Amino acid sequence: MNSWISDVKFDEKGLIPAIAQDADTGVILMVAWMNADSLAETARTGRAVYWSRSRGRLWRKGEESGHVQHLREIRLDCDADVLLLKVKQDGGIACHTGRESCFYRRLDDNQGQAIGIDNVLSAPAAAAGQLAAPNDAVWNSIEPVLKDPEHIYK
User: Fold this and answer.
1) Which are the contacts of 47, defined by CB distance < 8 A and separation ≥ 6?
2) Please, what is the Cα angle at 79 between 75 and 82, to 5 degrees?
């Protein structure tokens, strides 16, 4: 094993979460899992390779869809248990749903406003750290489908 890989803290299954981020825009594209083999291949080839838990094998991003992720840099977080891959995303689509990002759903209140610090009930509620209507919150899709998944995976 490469000495730099031994600095990575893999979990009990030999995996580590990997965040893929667009190197130019900063958009978080997806989160996947890597093992030592996929991390080594990614570093060696400059192409993102993950561990597919559902397939039980290495998953070379874009092998079926053509939406390859070209590596710009790899970062390791302060606890050495999460990776960040800054990538150039071919085709502008990282998600299997045909979207740029897998993070296309936002938690909104019942008025369609994002739940967050800018959306509070009142000044006293904000001071108490209470956000708007958490019991009525819903997940809304806020990103368009760029390509129908039926046309991506053939």
Assistant:
1) 41, 60, 61, 62, 68, 69, 70, 71
2) 45
Find the angle CA(41)-CA(47)-CA(49) to the nearest 5 degrees. 55
**pLDDT, tens digit (0-9, with 9 covering 90-100), for 74-89:** 999 999 999 999 999 9
Tell me the average pLDDT of the chain: 88
40, amino acid identity: A
17, exposed or middle or buried, with CB in 10 Å at 0-12, 13-18, 19+?
Answer: middle
Per residue in 27-82, pLDDT (tens digit) is: 999 999 999 999 999 999 999 999 999 999 999 999 989 999 999 999 999 999 99
pLDDT given for residue 98 in this prediction? 92
Contacts by 59-64, CB closer than 8 A, 24 or more apart: 59/32, 61/20, 61/32, 62/90, 64/152, 64/153, 64/154
Helix ranges (DSSP H) in 10-73: 36-45
pTM tops 0.85: no
Distance CA 57, CA 19 (A): 19
